[in-house]
Design a protein that fits this description.
Family: Belongs to the ATP-dependent AMP-binding enzyme family.
Structural class: alpha/beta
Helix content: 25-40%
Organism: Streptomyces diastatochromogenes
Mean pLDDT: 91
CATH superfamily of the domain at 6-190: ANL, N-terminal domain
Protein name: Acyl-CoA synthetase
GO molecular function: medium-chain fatty acid-CoA ligase activity
Radius of gyration: 22 Å
Number of helices: 14
Length: about 475
């Protein structure tokens, strides 16, 4: 297989590859540091990576990929029980970390190797096969202990090349983001993506709107973020002309990991003249769809299937949804070179995740427009509500609620109802906690925008919605607390 990172061997060595705050590495320096690390770990089975938002994390993963050794990114915010499970399950030979990083006691039995970003060594000439495991990324574990998705090298190459096609991504692009590096979004797209293109990435360390404005006004061309980040941007824009100028000058603004509320889409577009585009992926599939750079940035959709990705919507009985009418809901199933190969040590879970003819069951519910655009309405387990004979996606109700001036945040779930089967429950963080909008007012607001059967029957008020590290609302926590 050809190299994942041609620019490490063939590109201009003085071009900036990585920048984290005041620290940076050129392609020449990265090739030396990653090459030295690859020589040190060559022949290892797997290596864990303490994935702090630092230069050493990027060097560690790049070095592991050059060595053909699977990297297991660890979330530094994980609890000891979760870390213990991941280490026991993946059995890494050693852990790579930045010098001085404090590791929890649960990792003390692992051999530790401190990554030296200033080391020099030769880049290995032999390239592993495209089926060689590149990463083992653990899922969030909402239905039990996290499962390790084994992501092969072909999946990295396929996804990043498909995104290059969709986003017209080139070596001239400079990406800015502040995403964590233990997950697909921040690590694969946000670090490995620029390196595969031969471009540059500037990591903020910690997301701030000031950092975004500074980097975009200083030559960065692309911004990757999650909805929480774009919400903060939308809130800051009215009083920050430098931020508005920065976003207006960006070539591409991309949101992922969860649905970006339409209200935030529109506020950003109104203030900057630029529209955020969305894409859709999962740990197990990397990227499946995206709005294209040369396509219509339609709020509330995740665009069309990427090159090489087959996508279909399937009814509960397994038949394919025939109508691209923007209304008929089905589960998304995908096939393509972007998929993982297995859940580590879990042949049962791997078998259950695929159909007999090789389609991966995503568990995400969507509708498809007549022109092929995909609009996700929620997760099958938590966001598909069957009420009064209708199949209703929570996402569109959440978007409608967020259009109400009295609503700061909103989540929608279903709960058992003797008459309807399930009733719609709205969880609301009010804009003014002292004067929350009445339940009847919110129900009428939704009924007028969508349809009467989609109105919430119950409204519950919260100070904040529970979210994970990627900004996704943890609906199981809401339902458990009900």
């Amino acid at each position: 297989m050809s190299s994942l990172f041609p620019a490490l061997a063939d590109g201009p060595g003085d071009r900036c590859a990585l920048r984290f705050g005041e620290r940076s590495l050129t392609y020449g320096a990265l090739a030396g540091a990653a090459g030295a690390l690859a020589a040190r770990i060559h022949g290892a089975g797997r290596v864990a990576v303490w994935a702090t938002p630092e230069l050493e994390t990027a060097v560690a993963v790049t070095g592991a990929l050059l060595a053909g050794v699977a990297a297991v990114p660890l979330n530094p915010k994980s609890g000891e029980k979760e870390l213990a499970h991941i280490v026991s399950d993946s059995a890494p030979d050693l852990i790579l970390a930045a010098p001085g990083a404090e590791l929890p006691s649960v990792l003390s039995d692992l051999d530790r190797f401190d990554v030296d970003a200033s080391a020099t060594g030769a880049t290995p000439e032999d390239q592993p096969s495209d089926t060689t495991p590149a990463l083992i990324v653990y899922t969030s574990g909402t239905t039990g202990p996290p499962k390790g998705a084994v992501i092969p090298r072909r999946a990295l190459a396929a996804t990043l090349d498909a995104l290059a096609d969709a986003w017209q991504w080139t070596e001239d692009d400079v990406l800015v983001h502040g995403l964590p590096l233990f997950h697909v979004h921040g690590l694969v797209l946000g670090i490995l993506g620029p390196l595969r293109r031969g471009g540059s990435v500037r990591h903020l360390g910690r997301f701030t709107t000031e950092g975004v404005a500074r980097e975009l006004n200083d030559g960065a061309t692309m911004l990757f973020g999650v909805p929480t980040m774009y919400h903060r941007i939308a809130e800051a824009l009215p009083g920050d002309p430098e931020l508005a100028k920065a976003l207006a000058g960006a070539r591409l603004l991309v949101s992922g990991s969860a649905a970006l509320p339409v209200h935030d889409h529109e506020r950003i577009a109104a203030a900057t003249g630029r529209r955020v585009i969305e894409r859709y992926g999962m740990t197990e599939t990397l990227m499946n769809t995206s709005v294209r750079a040369d396509g219509e940035a339609r709020a509330g959709t995740v665009g069309v299937p990427l090159p090489g990705v087959e996508l279909r919507l399937v009814e509960e009985d397994g038949t394919e949804v025939a109508a691209y009418d923007g209304e008929t809901v089905g589960e998304i199933q995908v096939r393509g070179p972007n998929l993982f190969t297995e859940y580590l040590n879990r042949p049962d879970a791997t078998a259950a995740a695929f159909t007999a003819d090789g389609w991966f069951r995503t568990g995400d519910m969507a509708v498809r427009e007549s022109d092929g655009y995909v609009r996700i309405v929620g997760r099958k387990a938590t966001d598909l509500i069957k009420s009064g004979g209708y199949k209703i996606g929570a996402g569109e109700i959440e978007n409608a609620l967020l259009e109400h001036p009295g609503v700061r945040e909103a989540a929608v779930t279903g709960e058992p109802d003797a008459d309807l089967g399930e009733r719609i429950v709205a969880w609301i963080v009010p804009a003014d906690p002292q004067s929350p909008p009445a339940a009847e007012e919110l129900a009428g607001h939704v009924a007028r925008r969508l349809a009467p059967h989609k109105r919430p029957r119950v409204v519950r008020y919260l100070e904040a919605l529970p979210r994970n590290d990627m900004g996704k609302i943890m609906k199981r926590a809401l339902v458990a607390d009900a």
